[in-house]
Design the sequence.
């Protein structure tokens, strides 16, 4: 763990004395073994705590000499799809991919990204300006990798990755629905993977949250992120919430076990 467990106990001991009275405290997205240790320690120390599953995280330790070496070690169906879709895209008149990384390039790039996103299957952003501001923030820290595929002057697909601490985080993917059959998302992922491996020389590629099947095509490792909810069962609301959380986790656990068995 990044900090001694005693700090957690000290924190919750102080929290128990706070006013107004609290009912529950949520800790989210940590390594499963850390969540287990925190929950066990809190329970043994008189606090009622429950750990819960947050999400799966697929990732790729980069141990390859280059992108071609990496691609050779992927399943044959992935390797063949990448080559076939990349060749087909290159043959389209006016096709190109631009990877933006500088703030000076972002005025048009952000508009192109927004156009792709608006015509994709994704839900509209709750805060549209958030993404353009995030582009500029990451560009200012040399972490922006915004890939946009064009056919002629039209942007048709985009991917936004963030590079930091020798890790490439795959954050946003989108393509226009009418171009779905072209598999441009596969083309962009391959080009971005090559870029972060050979130019940025990252040590890890992280697909962040989600157990989507396509992530298994590109990544090699899976881990789970768990959380802990601590309850103040000295209050009626806290006690009710604690019992409800126990029931909910029991039902979720049974459902996940059945899913894993089915896989």
Sequence:
């Amino acid at each position: 763990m990044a900090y001694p467990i005693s700090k957690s106990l000290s924190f919750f001991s102080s929290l128990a004395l706070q006013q107004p009275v609290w009912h529950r405290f949520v800790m989210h997205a940590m390594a499963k073994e850390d969540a287990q240790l925190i929950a066990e320690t809190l329970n043994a120390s008189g606090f009622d705590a429950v750990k819960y599953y947050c999400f799966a995280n697929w990732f790729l330790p980069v141990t390859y000499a280059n992108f071609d070496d990496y691609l050779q070690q992927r399943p044959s169906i992935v390797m063949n799809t990448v080559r076939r879709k990349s060749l087909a895209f290159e043959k389209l008149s006016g096709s190109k991919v631009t990877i933006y990384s500088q703030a000076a390039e972002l005025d048009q790039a952000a508009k192109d990204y927004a156009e792709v996103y608006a015509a994709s299957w994704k839900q509209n952003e709750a805060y549209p300006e958030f993404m353009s501001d995030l582009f500029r923030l990451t560009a200012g820290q040399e972490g922006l990798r915004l890939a946009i595929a064009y056919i002629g002057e039209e942007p048709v697909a985009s991917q936004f990755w963030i590079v930091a601490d020798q890790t490439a985080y795959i954050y946003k993917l989108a393509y226009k629905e009418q171009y779905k059959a072209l598999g441009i998302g596969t083309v962009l992922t391959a080009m971005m993977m090559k870029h972060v491996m050979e130019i940025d020389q990252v040590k890890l590629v992280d697909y962040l949250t989600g157990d989507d099947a396509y992530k298994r095509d590109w990544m090699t490792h899976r881990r789970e992120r768990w959380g802990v909810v601590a309850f103040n069962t000295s209050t009626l609301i806290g006690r009710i919430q604690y019992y409800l959380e126990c029931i909910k986790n029991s039902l979720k656990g049974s459902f996940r076990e059945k899913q894993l068995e089915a896989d």
User: Anything to note?
Assistant: Strands lie at 24-31, 48-61, 95-100, 144-151, 154-164, 167-175, 204-209, 221-231. The chain has a mean pLDDT of 90. The CA atoms of residues 83 and 259 lie 33 Å apart.
